[in-house]
Amino acid sequence: MDEPSPVSTQSFASVIDELIISLSENIEGHIHYRTHEMDSAFRIATRMAMLYQGTIIKEAKPEEFKHSTNPVVAQFVSGEH
């Protein structure tokens, strides 16, 4: 699943996040959700993966992402460009 078009309000983003969380709790299987919105990603995910130049460079639980020592991951998570 790809993220919806740019979310105009934080309250709308929270509603979408809660719907995805509820859906994931009520189905058998997995939901793959692609987003650049790190707040949503950390709220929704139980596992995360980051692609960089066509390769998965990090796959872990959200807490591990927040404290990654990989400079590419750390820069992305912090929002620095």
Question: What does this molecule look like?
Answer:
The chain is globular. The chain is 44% helix and 14% strand. The protein is of the alpha+beta class and 81 residues long.
Topology:
Layout: H1 10-25, H2 38-44, E1 48-52, E2 55-60, H3 62-66, H4 71-78
Antiparallel strand pairs: 1-2
List keywords for this structure.
81 residues, two-stranded antiparallel ribbon, alpha+beta, single chain
Enumerate the spans where pLDDT stays under 50 for 5 or more consecutive residues. none
- How far apart are the termini? 25 Å
Helix-strand category: alpha+beta
* Fraction of helical residues: 40-55%
Note the beta-strand portion: 5-15%
Quaternary structure state of the chains depicted = single chain
State the strand order across the main sheet.
Answer: 1-2
Quickly describe the structure.
This protein is 44% helix and 14% strand. With 81 residues, it is an alpha+beta fold. A two-stranded antiparallel sheet has the order 1-2.
